[in-house]
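A protein record pairs a chain with a discrete description of its three-dimensional fold. The following entry can be read in just this way:
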Amino acid sequence: MADMKVKIAGVEFKNPVITASGCFGYGKEYDELYDISRLGGISLKGMTIAERLGNPPPRIAETPSGMLNSVGLQNPGFDTFVEEDMPFLRTKDTVLIANVAGSCLEDYCKIVEKVSDIDIDMIELNISCPNVKEGGVAFGVSCESAANVVKNVKRYAKKPLIVKLSPNVTDIASIAQAVEAEGADAVSLINTLLGMRIDINSRRPILKNNVGGLSGPAVFPVAVRMVWQVANKVNIPVIGMGGIEKPEDAIEMMMAGASAVQIGAAMFYDPYAPLKVIDGMEKWLDERDIASVNDIVSTVKPW
């Protein structure tokens, strides 16, 4: 039987399948369906220091082969998470990744410092959130701003730091190199692509926020391309995500250069998707006598 274990920044995962932030909550609802200890890891719902109510509804819109969301990082805040959710999560045998966000650089530093002192395994820095002090520009859209936030939070990070990259840029590989240079231990990509839908009868955007993040199978080819580009430019592990719903998708993403994958939108219509991907990947490897899932990473042969 193929070895499904992977290691990222010194942290061992029992398999390379991680649930994506914002799509799995803190796992309690899914644990009613199956033992979430089967997962390689969980990227927890995006966390901020204080509670956030998120954006006003409507904030979800269906699109061809995907969905738009403008939830706005709704979460109960750090203290409530520690009190109400951590005790449950630590009973589970899986890697816990704290996905953190902020509205300004000081917020990022504070939340990274706080989560470094609790019993989580890794930190995923979401630099695709609005930077209020910069007039609403996301940290992750330029090499300079991305490098600056990583440089500052790295001083507070006592756990391996994954930097989650935005695809809404012209050269994602350069941004990956910039955060690597400032101490990122891994990168994860892609976050959602910016999209919009309009109700032709009311002539108003369907989302109250006007625009939202596009996820689902529609973004998969873009994600594969960006993972491949980044993996060829950095020496740190790459975690690939964006439209993965089948074992073949995860295998393709790893061949492009991902050391592990995250599954998000697929769980909204099939909560068992992560388990199907884990079992399907293992079956595919066994059928081809491939000893380890690591043996398929970065094996694509460009023309």
Remarks:
- Residues 53 and 141 are 25 Å apart (CA to CA).
- Residues 6-55+73-194+215-296 form a domain with the TIM Barrel fold (CATH 3.20.20.70).
- The mean pLDDT is 96.
